[in-house]
Specification:
The chain is about 25% helix and about 15% strand. It is of the alpha/beta class and about 500 residues long. It has two domains: about 375 residues, Alkaline Phosphatase, subunit A; about 80 residues, 2-Layer Sandwich (Arylsulfatase, C-terminal domain). The strands form three sheets. It has a ten-stranded mixed sheet with strand order 7-6-5-4-8-1-9-10-2-11, sandwiched between helices. Strands 13-14-15-16 form a four-stranded antiparallel sheet, covered by helices on one side. Strands 3-12 form a two-stranded parallel sheet. Strand 14 and strand 15 form a beta hairpin. About 50% of the residues are buried.
Length: about 500
Amino acid sequence: MNTLALLTFATFSLALGLATAAAPNIVFILADDLGYGELGCYGQEKIKTPHLDRLASEGIKFTHHYTGAPVCAPARCVLLTGRHLGHADIRSNGIAPNGREFPGQWPINAESITLAEALQKGGYVSGGFGKWGLGPSDTNGSPIKQGFKHFYGYNCQRNAHSFYPPFLDDDEGTEVINPSPIPGHQEQATGEVKADDYRAKTYAPDRILEKALEFLDHNQDKPFFLYLPFVEPHVAMHPPQEWVDRYPKEWDEEKGPYRGQNGYLPHPRPRAGYAAMISDLDEHVGTILARLKKLGLEENTIVIFTSDNGTARPGKDPDFHTGGVDPLFFHSTAGLRGYKGSVNEGGIRVPAIVRWPGKIKAGTSTSAPSYFPDWFPTLCAIAKVESPENLDGSDLTPALTEGNFQRDKPMIWEFHGYRGQLAVIDFPWKAIRQQVNTKKPGSWELYNIQDDPAETNDLASVKVDILSRLENTFKNDRTPNQRYPLRLYTQPKKANK
């Protein structure tokens, strides 16, 4: 090869290398059951979240961002496939038995294209660390079969009920981390409740974080998609003692210990314990951000943080919510109606923070109505990779960088858990219908969530035309699914004459 050819080849190689390096890295952090008002930057006054508050000060905060579903598995399905609940493979939580102690959730379809698969075609390497919930490793729902090169954490969300589980999934195998694991559910009716009685050798969130940091170290020279569906603050309440000790003992003197009566595990100081879980989550986020900075990746990485649904719902003991959580004490919903499992605002409106140095103006906020299906087209646009044609979301890039944003179509929820619930948002209007899978389904309700975020004033009888339009929008933008029949819009078969 002559000198000119060598120079030309070198120039081309350098240009190619620069182009590859310029592709932005993507870090998507998903909290589990974190309420809208549980971060300092969203008005929380009791729980310490300095790293997430700093992330918000360095980026943009969404005030009207919504999850794809009010519970775990369908929210993750919507996020990773970009299809709302009216089109999604998974429309409620559900176990798919396969003979194992923790079989995993019902798998997404083999033909479904995930965000990781789309980014993979654009040269990205994808790693997932945390809770998957979209199919066991021996099915087409395995993360390794859905575009992820590496996965470490909880494949099954029931295994994730304990932070000291027997094992964690490692790609398509498992790693035993606790020879003497702690079950996720147990009730202690009498005696002193001791936190150490419900702890074991290895705290799973720390182990998951270690693996995520290793992924960053090993892939710092190529564009990557790091998906971090962390498990906190979902109960059982298993926080490190050092964080519990940072919160006032007086908090728990009024009600005393939680004994497991609303499910999951007992804890001697449930209010301090819950705050500790969120602070520990915040510290893990801070560790990820610090590693990005150490590796020189901070400037070329977009970081997204949000939650899969709202905080824990009430239980049979009115003094506590599920697992001992006390959202009234922490004002966890910031005045919104409803909790996890509900399509009311408190169940589906979630915090969302995005940092992208040089692209997003620091310390800003947006009221742009947005939800989980939007992240697929948004991140494909940012990564400059082709996205599937059948996505339900809108590209949020204008909201992130320009301040002006217009949705392509209304936001839709067809949730088949908790007796069945529907919702449509065409901001500021929100239509909801509950108990739709019962013999006596509820009527449609209509709220102006800009003027009435607590959903206290039902305008269904006043704004009849608006409600009719939103109901028709729902009926015309859904796909029937045999696993999730919706009797409201299923025409009965005519009898043969």
